[in-house]
Amino acid sequence: MRLAVPAAASIRDFYAFEQHVKTCRKQRGLDMVPQWYEVPVFYFSNAGCVISQDDAVAAPRGSQALDYELELACVIGKEGRDIPADDRALDYVAGFTIMNDWSARDIQRVEMAVGLGPSKSKDFATSLGPWLTPLEDLRDRYQEGRLHLEMTAAVNGRELSRGNGGNMYWTWPQLIAHASRDATLRPGDVLGSGTVGTGCILELTPEATGGWLKPGDVVELTIERLGTLRNRVVAHP
After folding, report:
1. Cis omega (within 30 of 0) on the bond before 173?
2. Which tens digit of pLDDT belongs to each residue from 149-163?
3. Domains of the chain, start order
């Protein structure tokens, strides 16, 4: 069954794939932060800047380092608070979709040096779609809290990224439970998985992929059973 993706009430984007985190930190000469294994951290993104299938996206003003991020996203379908971190959490899920957490890496580098987290480097666009797939249609791929679905990203028809949703370190029940701790989740709230291993240019490096995204590039994120989310990069208006 395919449903329309509802308007996002809020967006919490997690950091749940160890391979992505470890590789990106290693590139900067850093070890893993021990606290990453203690709590599934997230940041709030801008629900007012969600774009859909075939919508255009432009890098924010002044950025020369636009990047895609290949993610799974869960959409909440029922209100809940202090939800348990087990399969009962799935009762609150409307379905899953593809998420592209667009990032301006040059702006992000400056922001992260301050230590508060990303802001304008993520504020300009988040893609969701092309449709919402109910959990019931994915039960055969759900195991130990994870969806075992192949994930790929291609730019202008050239595959750059390939991973699997089953490689998440943190599980979906854990993400839902943490997001709902002392806070009420409501229908339309979106929880992003964070970037799958190899799922962005930053991790693969611009040198290996042909550089950052530029106007005219077509980015296609494909997740098994969830479809292909496609957007074209345009110049800043």
Report:
1. no
2. 999 999 999 999 999
3. 10-234 (3.90.850.10)
